[in-house]
Specification:
Layout lengths: L3 H13 L2 H8 L3 H15 L4 E4 L2 E4 L1 H23 L8 E7 L1 H17 L3 E7 L2 H9 L5 E5 L8 E15 L4 H6 L3 H4 L1 H5 L20 E3 L6 H15 L1 E3 L3 H11 L3 H4 L8 E4 L3 H9 L5 E4 L12 E4 L5 E9 L8 H13 L1
Parallel strand pairs: 3-4, 3-5, 7-11, 8-9
Antiparallel strand pairs: 1-2, 5-12, 6-10, 6-11, 6-12
Helix pairs in contact: 1-2, 1-3, 1-4, 2-3, 5-14
Length: 346
């Protein structure tokens, strides 16, 4: 095993590029620095630096040893940080969740970190299956997912509900109006004169209803309205994203619209795909398609005035759960993190 003291001296030498400054930073003499370098080269059985006057130049082997030394240093720092599990406001906290949830909770977690600077908050955006796998395999300590997992390897706690919305362009393209018979009479009204709408029924309290107009509907009956919205989505086309099929299926099943309940999401026309949450609504705002997302995402786009949320017969929500391993308690520092998340999502 290579002496870690020699590696630490070598790191300083590489980063300062000077024996004198290395000695000063390491509280050593210059001969002491040279001695550490000599012993490290003997241990590695190769020359690590070329002396250039007062400076140095790394050999190829020296570059590799430097990277190895830095990796060992970082591993040691992470290991020491991992031992601080009983400090309530100190150490690394990793929370894995969807992009929509990350948008909602990250400001609160940053506020917590600002209050307790020794906390190191990491938010990992990941799909549900990856989060559950990470918890089950003990590579993640805390996650947030939709729908309660059915596994003995995962402990879950209910957090709240996330409202889903069928999001359309506020102004439908003229070409679409011409393609869909009766659209201007039945459906164009719920786009153009919905400014007084009451929102999408966002039970999550996300506040997005203040930013966007909900589709209030001017159809003669809910059946006519349902047929019109079915025609709109079939002709407009889906802006697809990683969670789109899951969201669509849930929305069609729970929204209370008989016509939408019979639509197969897998057979819908797609007019685009993007996996960056912040960009999914951009093509919708330009009239290039529709999508289904948590309505809270509307709070985080600057073009929300170009979007509208279809007001279905029933509000559609998904339950949110925190997930962790059932075999051991979370480190104390996670309690403040969980409390901050609950205040946002509860």
């Amino acid at each position: 095993m290579i002496n870690p003291t020699w590696l630490d001296t070598f790191i300083t030498l590489v980063e300062t590029g000077n024996f004198t400054r290395t000695a000063e930073q390491r509280f050593m003499t210059q001969p002491g620095v040279s001695q550490h370098l000599k012993k490290l080269e003997e241990a590695c059985q190769c020359e690590l630096v070329i002396r250039l006057g007062k400076g140095i130049q790394l050999t190829e082997q020296g570059q590799r040893v430097y990277h190895y030394a830095k990796e060992q240093q970082e591993k040691e720092q992470d290991f020491i940080a991992s031992l601080k599990f009983d400090a309530p406001f100190e150490g690394k906290c990793v929370v894995a969740c969807s992009g929509a949830i990350a948008q909602r909770i990250y400001p609160a977690l940053l506020a917590l970190q600002k209050q307790h600077s020794a906390l190191n908050v990491h938010v990992e955006v990941a799909p549900r299956r990856t989060i559950l796998s990470g918890i089950a395999n003990n590579t993640l300590e805390l996650g947030i997912v939709t729908n309660q997992p059915e596994s003995e390897d995962i402990h879950s706690e209910y957090l709240g509900e996330e409202a889903l919305g069928l999001i359309l362009p506020r102004s439908l393209p003229d070409a679409l109006t011409a393609q869909v018979p009766g659209l201007s009479e039945n459906a164009q009204g719920f786009i153009s004169s919905s400014g007084s709408g009451s929102g999408s029924g966002s039970g999550s309290g996300s506040g997005s209803v203040a930013k966007v107009a909900s589709v209030s509907g001017k159809a003669k009956s809910k059946t006519d309205d349902g047929r019109t919205i079915e025609a709109v989505i079939k002709h407009l086309g889906l802006i697809n994203h990683p969670d789109a099929m899951h969201y669509l299926q849930r929305y069609f099943n729970d929204c209370g619209e008989a016509e939408l309940a019979n639509v197969n999401p897998n057979k819908l026309t797609h007019t685009g795909y993007i996996n960056q949450l912040s960009q999914i609504l951009l093509p919708v705002s330009e009239g290039l398609g529709y999508t289904v997302l948590p309505t809270s995402t509307l709070d985080f786009v600057s073009f929300a005035d170009k979007l509208t949320v279809y007001k279905a017969k029933n509000e559609v929500t998904e339950p949110l759960y925190s997930v962790q391993t059932p075999h051991s308690a979370l480190p104390a520092r996670y309690q403040a993190v969980k409390q901050a998340i609950t205040q946002v999502l509860g």
